[in-house]
């Protein structure tokens, strides 16, 4: 049975290294017969969570920006992959802001079970992704029906498009298994 796969590219650079990993994951998922969509945060309007917790009572955020639309897509997907550049050994701020804004789906009947992380960094050591993996695992811990199924640690890529074919292939393979 085909799955609904959503890839959220949180990179501020179109065609950046993590964005290319996102594209490869989508292609892999589609090659396996799944429906796959990429949502980019480039140009998205995302405000910070205000911590008001109104969403815990209404299921909706009081802030009217693009986060609500994206959260709807995340909640309705069977598989969710987040693609992020790693800055200072952590996920990018855009991804963290989006994860913080997921509070409205916390108590909902979300569909996603499998979560993936597609990360790229200038640092050549794969441990540079540990902070991003830990941060995403913290988010996943709040969604007890889901788990982290795979991580691409795309190291040694600074300039846009510099990501190694090895990591592109790895993202494609993970997408195909999703």
Give structural notes.
With 178 residues, the protein is α/β, with parallel strands linked by helices. The protein has a single domain (4-177), classed as Rossmann fold (3-Layer(aba) Sandwich). The chain contains 6 helices and 6 strands; from the N terminus they run βαβααββαβαβα. The protein has helices at residues 17-31, 55-58, 67-76, 93-100, 130-140, 165-177; strands at 4-9, 35-40, 79-87, 90-91, 114-120, 147-154. Strands 1, 2, 3, 4, 5 and 6 form a 6-stranded mixed beta sheet that branches. The longest helix has 15 residues, at 17-31. The protein is globular. The termini are close together.
Layout of helices and strands:
Blueprint: E1 4-9, H1 17-31, E2 35-40, H2 55-58, H3 67-76, E3 79-87, E4 90-91, H4 93-100, E5 114-120, H5 130-140, E6 147-154, H6 165-177
Parallel strand pairs: 1-2, 1-3, 3-5, 5-6
Antiparallel strand pairs: 3-4
CATH architecture: 3-Layer(aba) Sandwich
Q: Tally of extended strands?
A: 6
Count of helical regions: 6
Helix percentage range: 25-40%
Report the top-level CATH class: Alpha Beta
If you compute it from the alpha carbons, what radius of gyration comes out, rounded to the nearest whole angstrom? 15 Å
Question: Largest sheet at a glance?
Answer: 6 strands, mixed
Measured by DSSP, the beta-strand proportion falls in: 15-25%
Q: What is the total number of structural domains? A: 1
> Stretches where pLDDT falls below 50 for ≥5 residues?
none
What do the pLDDT scores average to?
Answer: 97
Q: Secondary-structure element order, as H and E?
A: EHEHHEEHEHEH
Q: What is the structural class? A: alpha/beta
The shape is globular
- CATH level-4 homologous superfamily: Flavodoxin domain
CATH fold name? Rossmann fold
Q: Span from first to last CA?
A: 12 Å
């Amino acid at each position: 049975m085909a799955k609904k796969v959503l890839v959220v590219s949180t990179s501020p650079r179109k065609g950046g290294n993590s964005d290319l990993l996102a594209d490869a994951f989508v292609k892999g998922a589609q090659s396996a017969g799944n429906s796959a969509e990429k949502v980019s945060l480039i140009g998205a309007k995302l405000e910070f969570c205000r911590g008001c917790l109104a969403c815990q009572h209404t299921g909706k955020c009081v802030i009217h920006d693009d986060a609500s639309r994206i959260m709807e897509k995340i909640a309705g997907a069977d598989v969710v992959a987040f693609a992020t550049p790693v800055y200072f050994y952590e996920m990018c701020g855009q991804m963290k802001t989006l994860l913080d804004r997921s509070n409205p789906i916390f108590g909902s009947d979300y569909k996603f079970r499998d979560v993936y992380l597609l990360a790229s960094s200038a640092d050549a050591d794969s441990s540079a992704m540990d902070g991003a993996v830990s941060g995403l695992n913290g988010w996943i811990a709040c969604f007890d029906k889901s788990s982290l199924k795979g991580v691409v640690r795309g190291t040694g890529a600074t300039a846009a498009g510099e990501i190694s074919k090895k990591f592109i292939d790895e993202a494609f393979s993970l997408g195909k298994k999703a």
